[in-house]
Amino acid sequence: MARTALLVVLLISLLLELALTVGAFGYPVFTLAQFGVKYGPETQFLAYIVAWFLLFVSMVAGMAAVQVWKRRPGFATWCYLLGLWWIALGIGIYYTFGKPDNLLLDSVKGLLILVLTGRCQASRVMARRY
């Protein structure tokens, strides 16, 4: 049950990150506007870096989902990394820019991944004992 829930959270997160990535590469003006930044010659490089950064996070989320799907022993490392990343990102954006929507979206998503990963590991340990 925890594995299925973890897969659902990871796949939804992956879809959200991929949508942001496509937006950042295809529509940089719109994407930067979502962050409150006006697109121009000074911010063109920022849009490019944000797009590649979002692609990297999408790849990590995809790798975590594949690892959970295939029941690989190293799935927890990817999931903990991703969960801690999103918690830190949500808290950082909230404290720096005062945006509670990011705190809720990113931190709750990260917390869900951490809790579900822990539950998956606990069920694996219990299964090995008996």
What would your notes on this structure say?
Helix content is 85%, strand content 0%. With 130 residues, it is mainly alpha-helical. α3 runs antiparallel to α4. The two termini are 19 Å apart.
Characteristic key phrases:
130 residues, mainly alpha, 5 helices
What layout of secondary structure does this protein have?
Layout: H1 2-26, H2 28-34, H3 44-69, H4 75-97, H5 100-129
Helix pairs in contact: 1-2, 1-3, 1-5, 2-3, 3-4, 4-5
User: What's the SSE pattern?
Assistant: HHHHH
> What portion of residues is helical?
over 70%
Instruction: Measure the end-to-end span.
Output: 19 Å
Structural class: mainly alpha
Low-pLDDT ranges: 126-130
Radius of gyration: 17 Å
Task: Compute the number of helices.
Answer: 5
Specify the biggest β-sheet: none
Quick summary:
This protein has 130 residues and is mainly alpha-helical. It contains five helices and no strands.
